[in-house]
Amino acid sequence: MIESLKNFFYPSSICIAGASTKEKSIGYELLKTILHYGYTGKIYPVNPKTDEVLGIKCFKKINDISEHIDLAIVVVPKLYVEETIDRLISRNVKSIVLITAGFKETGLEGESVEKRITEKIKNAGGRLVGPNCMGVINTSDAIKLNATFVAEKPEHGTIAFLSQSGALGAAVLNSLRETDIRFGHFISVGNKADVSENDLLEFWQSDPSIKTISLYLESFSDGESFIKNFADGKINKPVLILKAGCTEAGMKAAVSHTGALGSSDRVVTAVINQFGICRTKNLTELFNSAKGFESFPLPVGNKIVVVTNAGGPAIIAVDALEKEGLQLAELKEATKMKLRDIVHPEGSIENPVDLLPGGTAEQFKSVNQLVADDDNVDAVVSIFVEPVMVPAFEVVENINSVTADKPILQVVMPLPEFWNQYRINSKYKTPLFRQPEEPAKVLVNMLRYKNINRTVERLKPSKSVLELKPENRFLSPSEINLLAEHYKLPLIKSFVLNERELGKASFEIGFPLVLKGLSSEVIHKSEAGAVAVNIRNSEELIEASIEISKRFNRQGLALDGFLIQPFIKAKHEILIGGFRDPSFGPMIMFGSGGKYVEVYNDTAIKSAFLSEQDIDDMISSTAIGKILAGVRGEKEINISALKEIIKSTAQLMLDSEEISELDFNPVIVSSEGEFFIVDARVKVW
């Protein structure tokens, strides 16, 4: 697969099918951009109506090109796309970028054509980028490929950027001179008919020229395969994602408590955090963080020092650091003594270190060097607001010259002309930040990447216990019992009976007990009035069964029988559940349970590809988890047993692809610290 993508970024020859002599057309502008950027390979324009485009020989037909074609870029009108693809396939072209629009994004007819074209290319052993995209870029001096219709000339860097949106990709490229983003590779994937983020993750991981991977996505092609790349330890480069189009549409059919609480955007955030991927909120954070990974060493920890010449921006920076869970470092006394020799007497040698508006370039350099050398400091945020008497360029260049194995992130708030001066004259061209709150996001993303354990052992699917038909139903109590027995889930002893058999079962279980009315039409029994608890004798049992029958009759519900269980006095009620996300596959949930579960909304979710640390994080991130661990002098319950139940439930979700949702709610924690699943719903599709 890696080799199949190589020619998209490293082609020795390119065919432009649909090259044009008409200025401002895509076929003209794309070829012009390729030429002006300095592509080092051979170029074969194709247009039946002309002999030359932009001074280059033009071929009437694709079959007129006698040389091998590594990469074809198709910009012909939609009417001629399929014919053009057929001719490229006949010439054994394996890499095709289809820029033309009007396919899946326009409706069912366009989707059908797109599918047919994609299948033709795949059957011929080729790969397709697009359709409805804007091309590819490789800034390497050996290639110098800008096969887009954006005239900017990106500088070479080590960042790879995938954009699902062509327009957004164009906007990013158009802003390069302002943002100073330096790409290694850029690709617009459009409709993702074939090549997707999953393919490019693996390709960029293997490419030594790429240091950081950044993605703008509106959808995941196959979220489960995406996260399995990380779960299996295949990706170890920093990955940053800006995910748009966050809706709950995928969970509309959810019927259980677990499903109702698992909105699609919440799932995206959960899995991204679980596997050490950095989710950013906007383009500024995406590329600031990418530049951070490209240009600075990773911080060892979260102790930060702020150096400034202005109080207001420093306060904003400190607030942002605290909000992200970062801490102000406590400077050593020896460091403070040295700072006192540099900082103005009315300034501050505490953190934030304040040099006041008169702080010079030399002072900024010395102070940044001192605090970076302090063992209590993991990273430095240096803020400079330009006053009349101290030029920003000198300050920034002096700080750039500091030698440190820690990140020094500079926030510069200068006069407008500074930026062009820095871009042209800087010896270092280290990335700078424009707002005081920006470094906090960069540092926390770098720490998130650094702290994830990529070699950790995770759960993996094994053989399913039940052979289940693909049908939309809930499992029977007997089927649930089989699952519980195999996965060692603490399902409470239960009997399914009709009204005449109640007395016999009560003697086997003993009082007190719980009675529940069963119906295929009832999802949440308590809402239907189908539960009676703490039944102490036979008379109360009969009365409860009659009352439940009446309630079902009043609601027009069919009563399929009764479920009878021992009554366990609950000290706590928890929920352990699972659901199958449409994109990311099996998910697991833990939190506060009972009938008010949606009200409390005290739950944590993870991909079912769990590690031990994931389970610990799920428990500790919820209020009920903190309570179970022991608070206010209460004894900790058996956390090890709880972790085993969560792990077994996750394994069940991994093993049984037929299960769409399961809900163990409530799982009762008794006063003795034992766990009992007293209500289990398992839905298959």
Task: Please give a quick description of this structure.
This protein has 685 residues and is of the alpha/beta class. The chain has 24 helices and 30 strands.
Distance, first to last CA: 33 Å
- Total domain count: 4
Question: In oligomeric terms, what are we looking at?
Answer: single chain
Q: Indicate the structural class.
A: alpha/beta
- The helicity comes to 25-40%
Q: What integer value in Å does the Rg equal?
A: 31 Å
CATH superfamily of the largest domain: NAD(P)-binding Rossmann-like Domain
Instruction: Give the strand line-up of the largest sheet.
Output: 9-8-11-10-12-13-14
Silhouette: flat
The low-confidence parts are 249-262
CATH architecture tag of the largest domain: 3-Layer(aba) Sandwich
What is the helix tally?
Answer: 24
Number of extended strands: 30
What does this structure look like?
This protein is α/β, with parallel strands linked by helices. Helix content is 35%, strand content 22%. It has four domains: 244 residues, 3-Layer(aba) Sandwich (Rossmann fold), CATH 3.40.50.720; 156 residues, Rossmann fold (3-Layer(aba) Sandwich), CATH 3.40.50.261; 63 residues, ATP-grasp fold, A domain (Dna Ligase, domain 1, 2-Layer Sandwich), CATH 3.30.1490.20; 115 residues, ATP-grasp fold, B domain (D-amino Acid Aminotransferase, Chain A, domain 1). Helix 4 links the parallel strand 6 and strand 7. The two termini are 33 Å apart. About 2% of the residues have low confidence.
